[in-house]
UniProtKB/TrEMBL annotation:
UniProt-listed InterPro entries: Glyco_trans_1, Glyco_trans_4-like_N
CDD domains xrefs: GT4_AviGT4-like (cd03802)
Domain Glycosyltransferase subfamily 4-like N-terminal: 18-119
Record Gene3D superfamilies: Glycogen Phosphorylase B (3.40.50.2000)
Protein name from the UniProt record: Glycosyltransferase family 4 protein
Length: 349
């Protein structure tokens, strides 16, 4: 199958450090190539892939201080994809709704995976206007705000099977991983660890958009004796970081579309203590791969039950449910359905 993967240009594919969407696009692209498909990746020129790279600009926008209009390069990408569209059996966009005006109604097999939160009031009118645009959710819960969307399927994210593996270390702390932001609630993680009498290590990125929140709400808490702020870490560092944790805390306060950090922890055999929001009940199996909680008191109580969980079993559930091969296979099945729908029906003689 000839497949076009169209990535955002804000980060390279894969990103050097944090970058959820671009990491998933990379995992999917590489797995599709390994499965024998002909894949072209439309991305920034500093991306690294086994697929054919269609470089839309020399480097990721985030790394280029000269860029003042981040949307302009993305529109050039859409033009290039349209120009080359007949080279592919299917087009797979990862650009939110940007492709909708150009590709709706053209009769091409295409689909967009929606990677972000969909509970924003501005989005409803967009999906009212483009109710025929085929879209994929990354969890069933992500769909709830937009029942009018043309949902082609739900595909949970996956990681390469051997990207993150358990390390033979003695767990000795709690972990918080990902991004510092109000909806991720690192302040809750700090309080939970304090109430449980356990050290907390925070490995997280601070985006420019969250710099004020970090300085105002989180940085003053980092001086507490039980807290260590590690900063942003790479995939190479995650196995040791997660394997060394007794549990990953995910005390979120928003409708998490998926939550890649949860399956990263599972890949290392690390239990997850997560609040019941968004995708959490779809990803975490309560009492098997972690515990789903409603508040800080329940989170502290759950930490007292970690001995009930088997770290090898958590790793096994990752292999059964959340590998990149499973994700890619799900998408191939979806591509085949889209292609079949677009083929002209033969008239009976």
């Amino acid at each position: 199958m000839r497949i076009a993967q169209i990535a955002p240009l804000y980060e390279a594919v894969p990103p050097l450090r944090y970058g959820g969407t671009e990491r998933v696009v990379s995992f999917l692209t590489e797995e599709l190539v390994d499965m024998g498909h002909q894949v072209t990746l439309f991305a920034s020129g500093d991306s690294v892939t086994k697929a054919e790279l269609a470089a839309m600009r020399p480097q990721a926008i985030r790394l280029d201080p000269t860029v003042r209009d981040a949307l302009a390069p993305q529109f050039v990408t859409l033009h290039e994809v349209m120009r080359r569209a007949d080279e592919f059996d299917v087009l797979h966009f990862h650009l939110d709704y940007l492709s909708f005006p150009l590709f709706t109604g053209l009769g091409l097999p295409w689909v967009t995976t929606l990677h972000g939160r969909l509970d924003l009031p501005e989005l409803g009118p967009v999906f009212d206007c483009y109710s025929q645009a085929p879209v994929v959710s990354i969890s069933d819960s992500q769909r709830l705000p937009l029942p009018q969307a043309n949902w082609a399927g739900t595909v949970h994210h996956g990681l390469p099977r051997d990207l993150l593996t358990p390390r033979d270390v003695e767990p000795g702390y709690l972990a918080f991983l990902g991004r510092i932001s109000p909806e991720k609630r690192p302040d809750r993680a700090i309080r939970i660890a304090a109430a449980a009498g356990m050290p907390l290590r925070i490995a997280a990125k601070v985006d420019k958009a969250d710099a004020d929140y970090f300085a105002r709400e989180i940085e003053p808490l980092l001086s507490q004796a039980h807290v260590e702020f590690v900063g942003e870490i790479s995939d190479r560092e995650k196995p040791d970081f997660l394997s060394g944790a007794k549990a990953l805390l995910v005390p979120i306060d928003w409708p998490e579309p998926f939550g890649l950090v949860m399956i990263e922890a599972m890949a290392c055999g690390t239990p997850v203590i997560a609040y019941r929001h968004g995708s959490v009940p779809e990803v975490i199996e309560d009492g098997l791969t972690g515990f789903i909680v409603e508040d800080e008191a329940e989170a502290v109580a759950a930490l007292g039950r970690l001995a009930e969980l088997s770290r090898p079993r958590i790793r096994a559930r990752f292999e059964e449910r959340f590998t990149a091969r499973r994700m890619a296979s799900d998408y191939v099945a979806l591509y085949e359905t889209l292609i079949q729908k677009r083929r002209p029906k033969l008239r009976a003689v």
